[in-house]
Specification:
The complex is a heterodimer of chains A (407) and B (209). With 407 residues, chain A is an alpha+beta fold. Chain A has helices at 9-39, 44-57, 152-173, 199-218, 234-242, 267-274, 289-297, 324-327, 330-347, 352-361, 365-381, 388-399; strands at 65-68, 88-98, 109-120, 127-135, 181-185, 222-228, 284-287, 303-309, 317-323. Chain A is globular. Chain B folds into two domains: 1-123, no CATH class; 134-204, no CATH class. Chain B contains eight helices and seven strands, in the order ββββααβββαααααα. Classes of the chains: A alpha+beta (407), B alpha+beta (209).
Chain lengths: 407, 209
């Protein structure tokens, strides 16, 4: 039955009204946040004192904020990009997957990682490749039989792991090329498996993730996680923390009103208003329980970040996660900034290599149909009865989607 | 396929009147509008000859964004041309076929199949053999009124073959005479064809005298 729109008429009108009201409120709150950022822009001693106090008193399970890594450039300053290095090797990976479907005729899952290695300044064509992995019950390299009861979340976690492990291997391969080597992930560096079930499994996943980060560091590479238009509000939480004395709220309750903070604004709103195209913010250290765990295991892998205005359009803003070993090296930091700006300019406002890695990796519906058709054909060759759905599928492939020659 | 034959792509789709060829960028250096090509089956089936009458280069969203950039980087251009899967599509008008070693100047009994290799006819003996009989001109003229730019195709093809046959003046004079005969009641095609041919093949007037 089609949606009965007339029953939503009032709700739609109310929603539009609320959006208008909220935008007006956010405009005022953005002015407040920008004023706070300017007030505390270089109050380093006060920032340290209040953030130390907040970290010690807030519930670390929930408190997520930021604090400046360096005490040199004022927080309200936009930093221009320097020219990119003459030569650099820029590598991006992205992943795609087919999740197991226990109702389907064929039980398997597939992970496909796409990689592009871009030789900046060389004039050479980039190298592109994919690493598809087919997993099925009984396969020698499959983790366990029951893996096929996994949720899509668990396959996504395996894909995430494959992305960073592949990236680390490719960065190692690029050693010796002219200029620096930068590995780029299309996601956060401060990784935590979502939907992993918790406990030892999640710990192991994070351990493997950090091992891959360390592998990049060990071969002298740089690493970033690029998050387009992020939803974080760590810097806003920091501003609120700094100004807490003026509010009626306690430090211990900070997390409880996180979503109400500044009428639901995010750091994206704040830095979109502050930065000019190509500029970055100062570098912040991520304050969270997860990052504490990262730093405890390997201090160099503690995750820092800056915001980057990628284009002139509204909210063309990214968060760039970097490990401490990049954040603490000013030359590396400046060159990472410059390379990302250069990459964004190639196609407007988003890194070219990430666009291509995504395109290379993606497994579409047509690919899935073709794969399942090939599996069904191999089954038939082995005189195994192809499942009805696969047989039907083969007919669909043979009969459907054809076009006549039309010049 | 003989060792010295150059594959320019593979059949995407086909019917008895022609076929579409999918090519990579690096296969586009030699064939051009008007070139004689053949779809060559791997087995004993017939080879189908045709003329390229259209070359289509598709775009997509990423290409459109790159076009807006002031000076695209060499690396990006190379990536687009070498790595991305955007086939160049060539449309071919069937003009004859070879069966059991004999050439036929009519539509083939069967179209080529998907993924049959398509070869540019460069071998002088094969080119000479196919173009010796001008019966295939009728099949080109038959496409008039459709999507094939017949007059331009004739000129491009004749100029290409004239050159490949070592500036064979006798051949081109014979072609012109055949065209005059075939198009005597269709001046709309004949006149612009002869005019264009006159510009493309210097000395043709003299030979005609």
């Amino acid at each position: 039955m089609a949606l009965e729109f007339e029953k939503l008429t009032t709700a739609v009108a109310d929603m539009a009204h609320e959006v208008g009201r909220r935008r007006e409120e956010q405009r005022k709150e953005l002015d407040t946040a920008l004023a706070l950022l300017r007030d505390y822009a270089a109050e380093w001693a006060l920032i340290d004192e209040r953030m130390d106090r907040a970290v010690s008193k807030a519930d670390e399970k929930f408190y997520r904020a930021a604090r400046p890594l360096h005490h040199e450039i004022a927080l309200d300053q936009g930093i221009d990009a320097s020219p990119p290095p003459e030569r650099a090797t820029i590598i991006a990976t992205d992943g795609s997957q087919i999740v197991p479907d226990r109702h389907a005729a064929l039980l398997y899952y597939l992970i496909n990682v796409g990689v592009i290695t871009y030789y900046h300044g060389s004039g050479e064509p980039p190298e592109v490749t994919t690493f598809p992995q087919l997993k099925y019950p009984g396969a020698s390299d499959t983790d366990a039989e029951d893996v096929f009861n996994l949720s899509s979340n668990l396959v996504s976690i395996k894909r995430d792991r494959a992305e960073i492990v592949t990236l680390a291997a490719k960065v190692a391969e690029a050693a010796g090329r002219p200029g620096p080597t930068l590995g780029i992930l299309d996601q956060r560096l401060l990784y935590w498996p979502i939907g992993g079930g918790g406990g030892a499994h999640d710990e192991l996943v994070v351990e493997e993730w950090q091992d891959a980060m360390s592998a990049v560091h060990a071969v002298g590479g740089w690493l970033v996680g690029f998050i387009d238009r992020p939803g974080k509000r760590s810097v806003l939480t920091m501003l609120h923390t700094l100004d807490l004395d003026k509010s009626q709220r306690k430090i211990s309750d900070l997390y409880r009103f996180d979503s109400d903070l500044f009428a639901g604004l995010t750091d994206t709103d704040l830095f979109d208003a502050l930065l000019q195209p190509g500029q970055r913010s100062v570098v912040f250290r991520d304050i969270s329980q997860h990052n504490k765990a990262f730093a405890t295991r390997n201090r160099d892998n503690e995750v820092c970040f800056f915001y980057l205005k990628t284009g002139s359009g509204e909210k063309q803003l990214a968060r760039v996660d970097i490990p401490l070993w990049v954040a603490g090296d000013k030359e590396a930091l400046n060159q990472v900034h410059a390379i990302l700006v250069d990459q964004c300019r190639l196609i407007g406002s988003y890194p070219y290599v990430i666009t291509r890695a995504d395109e290379i990796a993606v497994v579409g519906r047509q690919d899935q149909e073709e794969l399942e058709n090939r599996i069904a054909l191999r089954l038939a060759e082995l005189d195994l009865h192809p499942m009805t759905t696969s047989k039907q599928f083969s007919k669909d492939i043979a009969r459907g989607g054809k076009t006549r020659f039309e010049g | 396929m003989a060792k010295n034959e150059e594959e320019i792509g593979r059949v995407l789709r086909a019917n008895t009147t022609g076929f579409a060829v999918g090519s990579r960028v690096n296969q586009l250096t030699t064939p051009g509008f008007g070139s004689l090509v053949k779809a060559q089956a791997a087995g004993e089936r017939e080879a189908i000859y045709g003329l390229i009458y259209n070359i289509n280069i598709d775009d997509d969203q990423l290409i459109r964004r790159l076009v807006m950039v002031e000076a695209p980087r060499r690396e990006v251009i190379e990536d687009q041309r070498n790595n991305r899967i955007l086939p160049i599509e060539m449309s071919v008008l069937a003009v004859g076929y070879r069966l059991n070693g004999d050439l036929h100047y009519s539509l083939p009994p069967r179209p080529p199949l998907n993924l049959d290799p398509v070869i540019l006819v460069e071998d002088p003996q094969e080119l000479e053999a196919f173009t010796r009989n001008l019966g295939y001109l009728r099949l080109i003229l038959r496409a008039e009124g459709g999507r094939v730019p017949v007059d331009q195709l004739l000129v491009a093809h004749m100029h290409d073959v004239y050159r490949r046959r070592g500036e064979d003046a006798a051949w081109i004079v014979a072609v012109v005479r055949e065209l005059i005969e075939l198009l005597r009641s269709n001046y709309d095609v004949l006149i612009p064809t002869l005019e264009a041919l006159n510009s493309a093949v210097p000395g043709l007037n003299m030979e005609m005298r």
